[in-house]
Amino acid sequence: MRELVIALTLATLAQTLISMAVYAPAVLAPAAQADIGLTATAIGIFTALIFVAAAYAAPLGGARVVRSGPVRVSQQCLLWAAGGMALFVSAVPAVIAAGALAIGMGYGPATPASSAMLSERTPDRLRNVIMSIRQSGVTLGGALAGALLPVLAVAYGWRAAALLVAVLCVAGAALLQIVRERYDAGRTGVRQAGHGSHLFLLRMVFRQAELRQGAFTSFTYAGAQMCFGSFLVVFLTERVGMSLIDAGAAYSAAMLSGIAGRMVWGALADYFDCARLVLGMLGLTMTLCAFVITLVSPQWPYAAVIALCMACGASAFGWNGVYIAEVARITSGENVALATGAVITFNFLGIVIAPVVFWLTVLLSGSYIPAFVLIGVMALAGSLPYFRKAWQ
Hints:
The protein is mainly alpha-helical and about 400 residues long. The chain has 2 domains: about 1-180, Growth Hormone, Chain: A; about 200-390, Growth Hormone, Chain: A (Up-down Bundle), CATH 1.20.1250.20. The protein has helices spanning about 1-35, 45-70, 70-90, 95-105, 110-120, 125-155, 160-175, 180-185, 200-205, 210-240, 245-270, 275-295, 300-315, 320-330, 335-365, 370-390. The two termini are about 35 Å apart. The relative contact order is 0.15.
């Protein structure tokens, strides 16, 4: 159990630091826009570049884990993220774009690496809750970026805040060196033929029915998650008439519910041995939230809006840990890293594609209603196979 606690602590720390780097450009954009020469909204381009690079790097990360070990790959991920943040400080758009790609190259393999680190040390009865705790690092990284970086930017400048994230990532990589030899003892040191091929890894997914289903669900759930995360504040301010402070508080409530949700859903999935049913119910909850949010109006009590945002957060931001645990259950041994890297590519593709479709739907229809209905249907489609399998 001691080894599991150490591995979980280090994996969560690495995930948190890398996620801070992912969210930092968006958080610092308002302070940096004058120096960069672009409006803060242009940060969406750089965010898209991060996830495009992550989608490319994630499947290759699994092969690197087999060859070099999960700790070494986690260190590399942290250093990629640190380098990306250092490039962000340049305030040159082309260099920042390169930095976004670097951050994505670090973000993509982080989950396969930490899954491999934890899966061999986690008993089956705790698989879902352990993976959920680890995945909470993603949301925690975003929460820390939102809470700390603006304060630092005001006090010391946005460049200092960005460099602090880079320094923390380097420090995290150095800390992991302490356990590198012990936790990477199973590394092969050999480049396996085909493991570095995207085609090989996609075939691994499509050969197995449960992985195929998981890839599709990952695409739909991640797309819904990113749409909620990207457009919730804009919707509440533009269409519901909330102040930015009130809308931001609602968004924070959603994020905090996501952190709590990951713990609760993981614990429920382990206690009742019903991970697939939990995943299906979370998709159904996302669908209901998306449909209900179309009814929100300025007449709604603020408490009701907060409650709805918390439900959105607990489901749309809370599914990831149970999902990653399911991938680990389906596979075994070195294939955990390979399969996780392969299926999480579809997660990143959903993150890139769904918000664009959402934005185009709003643009063409002039309303948020069809856009939220669309992501509700998308989440429903991803959930249905889990209900069928769970009740067979």
